[in-house]
């Protein structure tokens, strides 16, 4: 802008120019200055989430309140589930494109003061759980992965509880890395059960009741230890980071596909970033 002021002053003060030409110069330089200012502002604009790489801007998903207690039995017959909105699981993170018969999925969310409730509807032609130990290679089994960031702060979380990346297995074991940099189970965090739909057995209904823990959760204590930080009490208006994904394995040595609920901006071609970077999560808002 200093350049613009100097240039405008020099051009307009020229006594050799008629008034009409001076007006044209002022108009042209003004347009140039506006465009230059916009470009500069765009260059220095910080990412919205404060991270080094700006992610997709996802619409906030509104989550309705469950008016009655939900029974976690893999049979979502309650009226609250019937009224909740479906959201797709259709973003390929790892692997080639697959047919709807191989995998397709969608999910719903509800909440009450003590839990976040998740219903995932999965069509998967092969359900496979090859490793008995829930802390070993759990990402290579058929698994629902639930990403949660209690305060929607984003940021790194692979070996901290700034956010959780719960891997919920077919045998109802729940695994993630701890702050001790080792895989461990968090079975007291999520109550879960799945069952085949009685009308269409190709459909698997997978229900979960999730305790929401803050980032100061202490891995050295169990969730039932009285010295442990308690789960967060949920209230209307609360915003949390959230994403969902499914590990699909049709009897291979490693998973064949990893499909998510939100698009992820690749870095050096890598979109598998949710397990360590909460900036790629979307957001949910609890409403009543």
- Biggest beta-sheet profile: 14 strands, mixed
Total tally of structural domains: 2
- The second-level CATH architecture of the largest domain is Sandwich
Radius of gyration: 26 Å
Question: Based on helices, strands and strand pairing, what is the structural class?
Answer: alpha+beta
Please give the count of helices: 3
Detail the topology: elements first, then pairings.
Elements lengths: L1 H11 L6 H26 L16 E5 L13 H5 L3 E3 L1 E4 L8 E10 L2 E10 L18 E7 L14 E6 L4 E4 L5 E3 L4 E7 L6 E8 L28 E10 L8 E4 L21 E5 L2
Parallel strand pairs: 1-4, 1-14
Antiparallel strand pairs: 2-4, 3-13, 4-5, 5-11, 6-7, 6-12, 7-8, 8-9, 10-11, 12-13, 12-14
Helix pairs in contact: 1-2
Short description:
This protein is 15% helix and 30% strand. By secondary structure, it is of the alpha+beta class. The longest helix has 26 residues, at 19-44.
Structural write-up:
The protein is α+β, with helices and mostly antiparallel strands and 288 residues long. It has 2 domains: 2-44; 61-286, Immunoglobulin-like. 15% of the residues lie in helices and 30% in strands. The protein contains 3 helices and 14 strands. It has helices at residues 2-12, 19-44, 79-83, and strands at 61-65, 87-89, 91-94, 103-112, 115-124, 143-149, 164-169, 174-177, 183-185, 190-196, 203-210, 239-248, 257-260, 282-286. Strands 1, 2, 3, 4, 5, 6, 7, 8, 9, 10, 11, 12, 13 and 14 form a 14-stranded mixed beta sheet that branches. Strand 12 (239-248) and strand 13 (257-260) form a beta hairpin. Helix 1 packs antiparallel against helix 2 (19-44). It is globular. The two termini are 50 Å apart.
């Amino acid at each position: 802008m200093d350049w613009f002021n100097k240039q405008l002053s020099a051009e307009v003060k020229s006594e050799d120019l008629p008034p009409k030409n001076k007006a044209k110069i002022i108009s042209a330089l003004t347009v140039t200055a506006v465009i230059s200012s916009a470009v500069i502002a765009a260059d220095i604009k910080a990412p919205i989430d404060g991270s080094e790489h700006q992610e997709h801007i996802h619409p906030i998903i509104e989550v309705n309140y469950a008016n009655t207690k939900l029974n976690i039995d893999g049979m979502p017959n309650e009226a609250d589930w019937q009224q909740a909105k479906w959201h797709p699981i259709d973003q390929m993170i790892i692997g080639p494109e697959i047919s709807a018969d191989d995998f397709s999925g969608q999910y719903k969310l509800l909440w009450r003061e003590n839990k976040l409730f998740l219903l995932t509807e999965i069509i998967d032609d092969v359900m496979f759980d090859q490793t008995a130990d829930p802390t070993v290679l759990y990402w290579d089994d058929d698994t629902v992965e639930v990403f949660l960031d209690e305060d929607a702060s984003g940021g790194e979380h692979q070996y901290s509880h700034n956010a959780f990346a719960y891997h919920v297995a077919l045998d109802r074991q729940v695994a993630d890395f701890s702050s001790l940099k080792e895989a461990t189970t968090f079975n007291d965090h999520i109550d879960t059960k799945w069952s085949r739909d009685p009308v269409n057995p190709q459909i698997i209904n997978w229900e979960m009741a999730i305790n929401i823990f803050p980032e100061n959760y202490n891995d050295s204590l169990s969730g039932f230890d009285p010295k442990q930080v308690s789960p967060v009490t949920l209230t209307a208006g609360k915003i949390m980071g959230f994403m969902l994904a499914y590990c699909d394995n049709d009897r291979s040595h490693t998973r064949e596909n990893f499909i998510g609920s939100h698009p992820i901006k690749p870095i050096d071609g890598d979109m598998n970033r949710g397990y360590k970077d909460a900036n790629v999560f979307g957001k949910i808002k609890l409403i009543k």
